[in-house]
Structures are given as structure tokens and as C-alpha cells.
Amino acid sequence: MEECHDPGMEMLERFFDILPNMKKERALDAACGDGRLTNDFLSRKFDKIDMFDQSPDAFDIISNLKKHVKKIDDVQLVSM
């Protein structure tokens, strides 16, 4: 996946910059879709990331992403 430089990601960067003392041990990417938030942002900010989605297609994508992004700890397919 290409690195994304959209306004939403830039806003997240600014938000995290004002929270320098926030613990950055683990993040949860809920309803993660194709994993763009984890790949483009969370993997640079957190030590470990857990991801879940209810879509089997999204689960396949994030399972593959886990092979390339070492900070992804757990991926789950959930039913709602």
C-alpha cells in the first residue's frame, strides 16, 4: 500500500503531536477495512496493533498485511 497524505491523516498527525505523553504500547483498529489507517499511521505511532473487521474480504486483506507489518499483533474476523 502507498503511503497516504490525505487531510484526515494530517489531522491525526497533529492530534497525536499534542499528546506527547500518551502511552503508545497498543492500538485497536476496529472495522479496519483494508488496513490503511494501520499501515499509514498506527504502525508509526504504536508498538502493537490489533485489528478486526466483519468483512471476510477485509479479513483476507489484513491477514496478508500482517505478514508485512510486524507491529500487527492480532487480526480477527468478527460477526456482529
Radius of gyration: 13 Å
Number of helices: 3
The percentage of residues in β strands lies in 15-25%
Structural class estimated from helices and strands:
alpha/beta
- From the spread of the alpha carbons, the general shape counts as globular
- What string, H for helix and E for strand, traces the elements in order? HEHEHE
Overall number of strands: 3
Write the layout of secondary structure elements.
Blueprint: H1 7-17, E1 26-30, H2 36-45, E2 48-53, H3 56-68, E3 72-77
Parallel strand pairs: 1-2, 2-3
What does this structure look like?
The chain is α/β, with parallel strands linked by helices and 80 residues long. 42% of the residues lie in helices and 21% in strands. The protein has a domain at 28-80. A three-stranded parallel β-sheet has the order 1-2-3, covered by helices on one side. The termini are far apart.
Summarize the structure.
The protein is α/β, with parallel strands linked by helices.
Task: Please name the defining characteristics of this protein.
three-stranded parallel β-sheet, alpha/beta, 21% strand, 3 helices, single chain, globular, 42% helix, 80 residues
